[in-house]
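REQUEST FORM: STRUCTURE PREDICTION
Request ID: SP-0412
Submitted by: Lab K.M.
Chain count: 1
Length (residues): 114
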Amino acid sequence: MASSDNKHIPIQCPPEVINGVYTNFSIVNHTSSEFVVDFIFVHPNTKTGEVRSRVIMHANHVRRLIETLEDNLGVFSADERSDTDNREEDFDDDDPDNDDPFDDGLPPITLNFN
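STATUS: Completed
RESULT:
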């Protein structure tokens, strides 16, 4: 198959997948040949969580995913910066130790795969 044939791959999304799942935490592990990403929903009131999806990828796919995420995050950040006048910051500016806007204050996660 020529490389030009790879430009248009028909992709279908089954009905049970099309709506996606919401997660608010993820864990990444790897072996010598693969990466395993667990997408987890941590329940806000109970501080318990459950794996909603596990994705296993070859390292080459992970590299392409990272590049794509970085590109999209750059566009998202530019859009977000242009909208800063219309919203407040999500993290506490009064706390000098909290310079990480992604720190959600959750305790460390313990996984239990039964």
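NOTES: Residues 80 and 86 are 10 Å apart (CA to CA).
Reviewed by: T.R.
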